[in-house]
User: Fold these one by one.
Assistant:
Number 1:
Amino acid sequence: MFEDLHLSSIVVSTIRNAPVLIFAAMAGLFAERSGVVDIALEGKILASAFVSAAVAFTTQNAWYGVAAGVAVSAALALLQGYVSITQKGNQLVGGIAINIAMSGLTFVLAQFFYQQGGRTPDLGQARLFDIVLPGTEALAGIPFIGWFYGHVIGGHSALVYLAFALIPLVHWVIYHSRFGLRLRACGENPHAADAAGVSVATTRYMAMLVAGILCSFSGAYLAIVQSGFFLRDMSAGAGYLALTALVFGNWRPMYTALGCMMFGFFSAVQIQIEGVDLPGIGRIPGSLIQMVPYVVTVIVLAGLMAKSVAPKAIGKPFVKSR
């Protein structure tokens, strides 16, 4: 049966691993298209993951947790915008500061409130569970079609569907809306945008707010869907992988999503081969297997960094011409 093949597990795992990166990468896309380097994706993922898990556990309502994660991630994004846009501070330093602060603060708060080694209790029924599509049982006995309908198209949480629906939506906003035109103008030539009557600061703040909201779903997905609890540094570099996907996709939504799928695929392969005796090789140590996504990241950056063209004004504070 097709369901018994490892390939089927890899396909399903790829679909379930990708949303964490898709949400974060689309968040980074808005910020960086406006001209702000969003190195703080990692910190916002961690903050939203902790708050989502804590609120979901307290209220026993997953959607309250998601909403709380949105609020804290948006607040961090606006703080990041204040440092980068209003104060014209170093965007890399400000982003790294948020990452370091959230890595320590989430652990300290989790230990203070729950006394479980820096993690939250299991969420239990407060998690977001998979959606079973109508007709799944009727098609279950049909080879391939039953598996494809029940596990590839169906059988995922609402956030998975939101992540994949986000890809064409972001593409439309960036390339076919007035806001997207202003966003790209601010990232490419903010002085020309300012001369045309566009408020560069307002546009960049709006981009950071959207980025904070989208990034929060990445953290909520980690805590409320995948794990069912918050654990210290559980993002495991997802924010940096999302930035790599942006480079891979040349800051374009569709290609960036393909990069996220690629990293999701290698994460799924990593899970499949861990603890398995490979023909002619034997069992590969787990520490080496866990390096797979990061080795792929280095290879992608080494091969594509020179070919990728970032927005021209990225990382440069805008000073209004007099």
Number 2:
Amino acid sequence: MKKLPVMVTALLLALIFLTGCGATPEKEAAPPAKEEPQETGAEKTASVDHSQLVTGPFEKPQDVTAKCITCHEEQAEEVMATIHWNWAGPTPNIVGHENQTDLGKRNGINNFCISVVSNEVKCFQCHIGYGTEFEGKENIDCLVCHAQEGGYKKDKKGMPAEGVDLVAAAQSVGRPTIKNCGTCHFYAGGGDAVKQGDLDSTLLNATAEHDVHMGGNGLACVDCHAGENHKIKGTSIHIEPTEGSVKCESCHGNAPHEMDKLNEHIDTVACQTCHIPTFAKGQPTKMYWDWSTAGQDIEAEKDEYGKETYSKKKGSFVWAKDVVPTYAWYNGKVERYIVGDPINPDGVTVLAKPVGSIDDPNAKIYPFKVMKGKQPADAKNNILLTPNVLGFWKHFDWDKALADGAAASGLDYSGEYKFVETEMYIGINHEVVPKENALTCNDCHSENGRIDFKALGYEGDPMQVGSRFSKEK
């Protein structure tokens, strides 16, 4: 046999390697019925090149918006009808408030920064408008979601920060990236990873092991959360309004596993429960916030993560990393504390809690971060109060801060206050790990398994006593 030239041999070997020729699989995989080309999140950010369409200079940011509206007036109308613009919207999932359309940041309360009311100036740095305005299309901040260059960011008053190049920012607009969304959502609650245990700056350069969607498949937030007409899909336990839900099944179907036994779990166990074994993998998240110690001259110390455990402005904190979630039944409905609701006088006041039980066929076991806190309440009226936190940071007078905040939110303040324990459930939906790192049977179904089945209503481990749908439970 005549010897082939070295170059030809190399090319043939490369072709065999790339095409898989010579392989002898046990079973040839059937070709998909229809396979559409897939784009990564980065590729999808490509948009119409605006560098020649938008010219400056711009004297003020509203001039940029005016330019956008010349082509996108319909989109501006859409934005002004969204929750991101109004900070309020429909609440079909909140028990007792299913038909309301005006609940949002002004009616809610949390155990982080407590309330938007009377603290708006600080909060507007994450509003999609300029300054403190909720009116006028010219005040829509298109750049906060769409600018890719120009160093775009907002200052504490909701305006473009000093040094931002408005022309460069406007010319660079495109599909929102993880950075665009994360600029606000990663830092909710007062800092990186403070509120959302599964959302932090790590996702900007995530590995597949950290988050298989954003790190492994190059997806951006809007690949899952974008709806129509600028409405952003997503349902949170602790956030009142919603513009639609996002479900794993939308992409993965109702029987995503090769094993039937795993698919049988889907009626009872949410995908997130097995595929997010822990949260706060990249950055520690705040798990407890005690406002009662704020204003005192206590020496601040740092914990094992390098996080301060005390701040005169904010009180005492407990941080945690690689946290095993709390598991609870959830059917999509929520019990939510609204400003003016009575507190629990005999124990912990729950600010947000999933609804569901073992007897509810629509409920599944979901993972949650349970944020615990201690915050001010009216000692006589037994309602939570909405302090003017920004004012408190100047004078450290709780009585004045509570009186000012109550006046702003329309609450009746008796002049006497106390600090009460609260807790708030926050859903865990990100930091999905690769399938080989998901929980296995023994992680839950063992003597020291992570799930307390009796606390969930079972008589014991369902592998021993039967599932909730069986005759024997």
Number 3:
Amino acid sequence: MPIKIVCFNKISKEYEILNKFYFNKIQKFTNIEIMEIKEIDYGNVKENQSKNEYNINERILKLKDYEFYLLEINTKQLDSIDFSKIIDRNINEKSGNICFVIGPSDGFSENFKNNYINKISFGKITLPHQLIRIVLLEQIYRAFKIINNQKYHK
């Protein structure tokens, strides 16, 4: 079951240790790839969204047989158990391929969001994109621990 994460910009050195830590732990369960896109910032929100969404679509439309999940603050919030069920269901009932998309700084336009059925939220607070990337990696790792009935640190 390959997992792909589409996100903007390279991870900064402040987050690199945690990024590598969770990435390596996930690789014990499945293949994972992080697809980094350079974020466009022209100063105009709508123009930024349009170009960044185009760049997302350029990357993910090449992924056949993937189930896509947008990380979107204004949608259903998931706890770790619900999140693990998404991954487990994907492994057992679907293609086994899953892609999580972390949006750009200006977020997704309504039109873009409407093109994707699956959206998840880890809460109503706004987090920096680098930090939500770490949170997502940690939750993917935790999901595999839950699925495999393995202990996770408390």
